[in-house]
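retry 2 of 3: previous attempt timed out while embedding zinc ion. Reduced batch size to 1 and resubmitted. Inputs unchanged:
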Amino acid sequence: MTLRNIKKTLGALLLTTLTVSATAQDLIARQAPIDRRMKDVSNVSLGTSFANADLNDPAANIYTTWVNKGHKNAPGYAAAGTRIDLRGFAMPTPSRKINSPFGPRWGRTHEGLDIKVYIGDTICAAFDGKVRVVDYNANGYGYYVVIRHPNGLETLYGHMSKQLVKPDQIVRAGQPIGLGGNTGRSTGSHLHFETRLCGQPINPALMFDFEHQDVTGDFFTTTRAYGEQTASRK
Ligand SMILES: [Zn+2]
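retry 2 succeeded.
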């Protein structure tokens, strides 16, 4: 194809685009969340996802230590107003059914969201990151996994029937990390999903909208400080 022909073709294409009917534009507008997800996918293919080097020490600006034990064992400091980048997310499960919300429950705080899944359902990493904990707690999370992400969050996936990752493994958003189950302190198969910052829980529903299979926005900004400022902070 000659350059002139290419220009001609592009011109025709542009004209077609400009004469798209109002009805079609409405349809396009209604698909906005899907478009946003597609944009995320193309970002990955353009190479703007995190390089392995960044994932080896995720959120080093916040955390002071890296230990493979303890879901709360994440010393660090994030000031109020810390902006957490939610772009590049993947929903941990396609399930849209919340069985139990974050908050007070049975005289204690339920520090995550319970999402209905069946035994053997694929559970995926919510963002790119590095697996910090792969453990078992018979009276609590059952088989669970904790991942630290470059955006500062740690995500926890509990009550699984099987773990598919190893400590210190680098994972990508949407990568299977376990299978749904009913292990630990659980009645009925479900995924217990937590989002933590410096070991302290944040309501995942402030960031993840399972019903609509989307994040609540491109960013989540904290309204208070998390963790403790220490001299050893990087
Ligand atoms: Zn739970």
